[in-house]
């Protein structure tokens, strides 16, 4: 009777210890995110939730991003897309709970659930694996500012700095 109890206990404990971090074993903690823009060659700047820039490049690109940002903390990113003559676009990337994390409950891996998966970041997954954006043309005032123009103003409305630059015309 004692041998059967011992064998049963070993049969249950050994797999739970060996397979105690389900998401870390079955899944991963960094995920590829592919970015495509129209127009191609747009600038890409990715910052984490602390505001630190972790990637700078041009589209199209595929970047590996970590899903965890510390113990029990999911990562969050801001992707800024920019191109001359187009409006900048900011897209958030968020992480959600990885389904494999719940596998720890099924196989009794409380060590994996409370320590290993949260520490490695494997308990999270990046929801959006692809960003496909079309940038809109900007209605910039730059073309208006660079074209010569004539403005008539009252001398009382001119600042002191500009008055020193005035030229008298006879």
Instruction: Order the strands across the largest sheet as they lie in space.
Output: 3-2-5-6-7
Instruction: Decide which structural class fits the backbone.
Output: alpha+beta
CATH architecture: Sandwich
Biggest β-sheet strands, sense, barrel = 5 strands, antiparallel
Compute the average pLDDT.
80
N→C terminal distance: 119 Å
Question: Residue ranges: pLDDT <50 for 5 or more in a row?
Answer: 16-20
User: What portion of residues is helical?
Assistant: 25-40%
Helix count from the secondary structure assignment? 6
In percent terms, what proportion of residues is strand?
25-35%
**CATH top-level class:** Mainly Beta
Q: Which quaternary structure do these chains form? A: single chain
CATH names the topology as Immunoglobulin-like
What is the β-strand count?
8
């Amino acid at each position: 009777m004692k041998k059967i109890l011992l064998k049963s206990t070993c049969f249950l404990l050994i797999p739970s210890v060996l397979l105690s971090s389900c998401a870390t074993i079955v899944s991963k903690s960094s995920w590829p995110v592919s970015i495509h823009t129209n127009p191609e060659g747009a600038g890409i700047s990715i910052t984490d939730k602390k505001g630190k820039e972790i990637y700078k490049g041009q589209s199209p690109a595929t970047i590996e991003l970590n899903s965890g940002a510390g113990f029990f903390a999911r990562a969050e990113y801001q992707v800024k897309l920019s191109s001359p003559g187009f409006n900048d676009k900011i897209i958030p990337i968020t992480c959600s709970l990885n389904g494999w994390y719940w596998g720890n409950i099924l196989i009794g891996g409380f060590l994996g659930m409370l320590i290993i998966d949260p520490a490695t970041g494997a308990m999270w997954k990046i929801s959006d694996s692809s960003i496909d954006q079309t940038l809109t043309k900007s209605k910039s005032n730059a073309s208006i500012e660079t074209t010569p123009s004539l403005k008539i103003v009252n001398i009382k409305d001119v600042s002191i700095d500009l008055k020193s630059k005035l030229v008298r015309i006879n």
